[in-house]
Amino acid sequence: DIQMTQSPSSLSASVGDRVTITCRTSESISNFLNWYQQKPGKAPKLLIYAASSLQTGVPSRFSGGGSGTDFTLVISSLQPEDFASYFCQQRFAAPFTFGPGTKVDI
Amino acid sequence: QMQLQESGPGLVKPSQTLSLTCTVSGGSISSGGYYWNWIRQHPGKGLEWIGHIYYSGSTYHNPSLKSRFTISVDTSKNQFSLKLSSATAADTAVYYCAREKRGDDLLDYWYFDLWGRGTLVTVSS
Question: How many helices (H) and strands (E) does chain A have?
Answer without folding.
Answer: 0, 11
